[in-house]
């Protein structure tokens, strides 16, 4: 049974600050293995601390004008037209890809047949012996660190590394309707039994100093495509706690989500994570797209 250690305390504070709901945070903790009662106590405690701090801040800022406060309030995310083509089947470069589900808020699409079984198998086999422990971006420094919130192994491929990788990248670019040159290199991740990635955002939060290191080249991330390279017998879903959506890992399938609109707003509803793998292992391939040419 997990405990509310320093990493979980940081997760609680961060998600309260981002405006996540109590229910979504409790659900995420239960998904990660916490007892319901323990999760509720931890989340309510975190919101209680926020309320106390807010009261202190309100008293200190009592003289602030309503106009200043209104100007400082964040604008609600505006959903605009998706770059992904309409229809139930999309021709993606060299392959027909089926659409299984579309969600408007957040902008999310579940696909089938993005990769063939043979292509999935090749990606796994060429990656298996090159795996290293996965990292996250430190919000203060922009450095990559290993933490317990992310229990996976991974490898990065250079964009256009060989003919096989180039063909897959062109297919993904066509499907996401975003330039190949705006994409980061493909990342392959393996999660073993109990492996997980607790809820997080793929974009770089503008208010965190370390984000500037990563947006200096190519700008902000705008959308993600997660492709499942194998079937997971139990667990390992991609969860969106704010939207109450869970996508099961199915070989060759994928989930697309877009979090930056044409006005450069960022969508907090794209908070997502990888639920613990309860049986077998999970292999995924991730493509992140940037605003501008990257690399």
TrEMBL record:
Coiled coil region boundaries: none
Enzyme Commission designation: 1.14.11.2
Names of required cofactors: L-ascorbate
Keyword Metal-binding assigned: yes
GO molecular function annotation: procollagen-proline 4-dioxygenase activity
Enzyme class name: oxidoreductase
Sorted UniProt keywords: Dioxygenase, Iron, Metal-binding, Oxidoreductase, Vitamin C
Alphabetical list of InterPro entries matching this protein: Oxoglu/Fe-dep_dioxygenase_dom, P4HA-like, Pro_4_hyd_alph, Pro_4_hyd_alph_FE2OG_OXY
Gene3D superfamilies: q2cbj1_9rhob like domain
Domain Fe2OG dioxygenase: residue ranges: 182-291
Pfam families recorded: 2OG-FeII_Oxy_3 (PF13640)
Protein name per UniProt: Prolyl 4-hydroxylase
Annotated source species: Paraburkholderia terricola
């Amino acid at each position: 049974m997990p405990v509310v250690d320093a990493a979980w305390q940081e997760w609680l504070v961060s998600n309260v600050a981002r405006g996540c709901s109590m229910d979504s945070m409790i659900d995420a903790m239960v998904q990660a293995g916490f007892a319901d009662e323990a999760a509720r106590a931890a989340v309510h405690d975190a919101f209680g601390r926020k309320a106390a701090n807010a009261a202190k801040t309100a008293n200190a800022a009592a003289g602030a004008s309503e106009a200043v406060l209104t100007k400082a309030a964040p604008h609600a995310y505006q959903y605009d037209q998706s770059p992904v083509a309409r229809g139930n089947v999309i021709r993606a470069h060299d392959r027909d890809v089926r659409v299984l589900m579309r969600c408007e808020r957040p902008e999310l699409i579940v696909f089938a047949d993005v990769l063939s079984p043979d292509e999935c198998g090749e990606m796994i086999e060429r990656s298996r012996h090159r795996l290293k422990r996965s990292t996250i971006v430190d919000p203060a420094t922009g450095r990559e660190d290993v933490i317990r919130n992310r229990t996976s192994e991974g490898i990065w491929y250079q964009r256009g590394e060989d003919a096989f990788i180039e063909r897959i990248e062109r297919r993904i670019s066509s499907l996401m309707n975003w330039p190949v040159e705006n994409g980061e290199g493909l990342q392959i991740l393996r999660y073993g039994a109990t492996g997980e990635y607790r809820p997080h955002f793929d974009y770089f939060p503008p208010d965190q100093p370390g984000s500037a290191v990563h947006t200096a080249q190519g700008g902000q991330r705008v959308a993600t495509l997660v492709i499942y390279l194998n079937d997971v017998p139990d667990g390992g879903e991609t969860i969106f706690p704010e939207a109450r959506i869970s996508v099961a890992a199915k070989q060759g399938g994928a989930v697309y989500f877009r979090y930056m609109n044409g006005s450069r707003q960022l969508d907090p509803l794209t908070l997502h994570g990888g639920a613990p793998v309860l049986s077998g292992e999970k292999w995924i391939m991730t493509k992140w797209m940037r605003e501008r040419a990257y690399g």
